[in-house]
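Sequence in, structure out.
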Amino acid sequence: MPALAIILIIVGLVLLFLGVFVEAVKFLLWIGIIILIVGVIAALMRFIRRNA
């Protein structure tokens, strides 16, 4: 599970930066934000479960 969250965060950041720097693919900006949010939520859920 930790590897999945890290991969989601990395992919989200890459797509986010690609969406910012390339005007032709603006939809990547939104996909990057969504994947980044999913990765952060997964990391938070893992952190909460470990501390509970």
